[in-house]
Fold this protein.
Amino acid sequence: METIYPDIPRICTAMAEWIMCFAYVSFLPKRYTGRKNILFCIIALLLQIFILVSTAIVPLKYWILCMILAAGCMFAFIYMCCELTTGQALYCCAIAFILAEFIASLEWQLYIYLLKWNLQFPGENLILLAIIYIGMFWVVFYLEVALLTKEFLQELSVWELISTVALVIMTFAFSNINFLVADQPFNNAVRLNIFEMRTLIDFSGIAVLYAFQSRVSEYISKKEMESIQTMLKSQYDQYRSYQDSMEFIRIQRHDLKHHIALLRAETDLQKREEWLATLEHELDSNNFVDPTGNRVLDVILSAKGQLMKKQKIHFTCVADGALLDSIHVTDICTVIGNALDNAIESVLMVENSEKRMIHLSLTQKNDFIFIQIRNYCEKEPVWKGKELLTTKKIRKIMVTE
């Protein structure tokens, strides 16, 4: 008589779900430390086993509710042990759930193959379980610790979270389609094909999720590289600004020595006073910007001010730099530096140097920091509906109400 292959034991599924959650708990920032965290892990394991084992006799129509309860226990485990938001914990729970389905299915499929080939040996199920579960734990740990970073979780949007959860639900539904036909008198070959299909579908879902995570990680890495490049450019501009300032001071010092020598030789007090007033006016005119209250902004304005002076651009500034104290250096350099570069690029197209004017204002309006940069432009802006066209080929600005 042909032996009917059994389905995955509930305790194996419970352990798979717990160990995948534990993989995330191992490297994500902890909400608690020490004994409290260990206690939560033990309680989560016992609760996961109790939920799945005790619901084994539940009618098939209530099976989906039991799986939702098990997934809720996984969510609570991750959320209670890790310092994550609800959305971040849900994202990790969704991935841990489909990973658990995969490793439980993979381990049981290998066990069925041993039965099929008559390769049974004492404790083969426990040995396979230990090898597969522990091996997958380390694989998931080393893959996810590199991808699921703090920056990744912070960049996670609501739409990405919904897409991930939807993909996990669809993968789980297709991989467990055999439950809908569990009462059919299938032979061993058909049941083995069902196990193989279940494992394959779970693996396909994991591959899609991993590809998604890789793309987001690449985007974050690219964004970090752009921030680093912006910071390096700002540092280079600062160095050039200091270099130009030192050269300017050297020239002024050299000229000042000659002025002092001539002043000493001048006997007419009125001419001497006129000469001193002229020197004082020249020194005042060499100040590019007054201190704003933010050192980073002062450096940017000083560097851009020297550049604008060389290009005969009239630059005025009214800025409360203290408003930028809570903003990261990179963001200040990116926003204001790029905006001033665009303004300079625009006014340089004006042939009449007297019309080359740029004005920057930085104020607070309600709870917002209002940055406004105005420059003279001879051409009227071109609008296409609410889309403001630009002279640059690959960029466009969307204006929304």
User: Anything to note?
Assistant: Residues 10-221 form one domain. The chain has two domains: 10-221, 287-401. The radius of gyration is 34 Å. The first strand starts at residue 314 and ends at 319.
